[in-house]
Design a protein that fits this description.
70% of the residues lie in helices and 3% in strands. With 148 residues, the chain is mostly helical. The two termini are 23 Å apart.
Length: 148
């Protein structure tokens, strides 16, 4: 697992969602990003195959308008936090999946957009929430599993 400083992680979540997180939350966050990116890649592979291609192109990624907006928000935050490199190392790429260079380069941004969406979800679900507990993570995982 790549090293993300706990302080950077804490600042990112404080900025993106007004949340206080700790090093225990970092493991849950890593699991979240890895599983959501895998879900998107599985769907993208099916889209590529349906279009007669073996290589996944950026257009194959099932990116909603909302997620695209969160990617834009992440890009603005990334100038301060420089998380793209860490996210690039964090996300898994299945060995049996061929990605175009453009798709591969886009994945850290998508992971960042998912990260912003996650932070905002916590805030939207419970506006007064400041400190995450296991139940909050479980609920967020369940919601994203319904959607992705």
């Amino acid at each position: 697992m790549p090293v993300m400083s706990v302080a950077t992680f804490q600042r990112f979540f404080r900025t993106a969602g007004g949340l206080n997180v700790d090093k225990d939350d970092l493991k849950r966050y890593n699991d979240f990003v890895q599983s959501r990116i895998l879900d998107l890649l599985i769907a993208a592979r099916a889209i590529a195959k349906a279009n007669g291609r073996d290589i996944v192109q950026p257009a194959d990624l099932p990116i909603t308008a909302g997620l695209q907006e969160r990617v834009g928000e992440f890009q603005a935050l990334d100038e301060e936090f420089e998380l793209s490199g860490v996210l690039d190392q964090l996300i898994g790429r299945p060995p049996d999946l061929d990605l175009s260079e453009e798709t591969d380069a886009r994945l850290p941004l998508v992971a960042g957009g998912l990260s912003v969406a996650l932070a905002r979800l916590f805030n939207e679900a419970e506006p007064e929430l400041k400190n995450l507990q296991t139940r909050h993570w479980e609920k967020a995982f369940a919601i994203f599993e319904l959607l992705l």
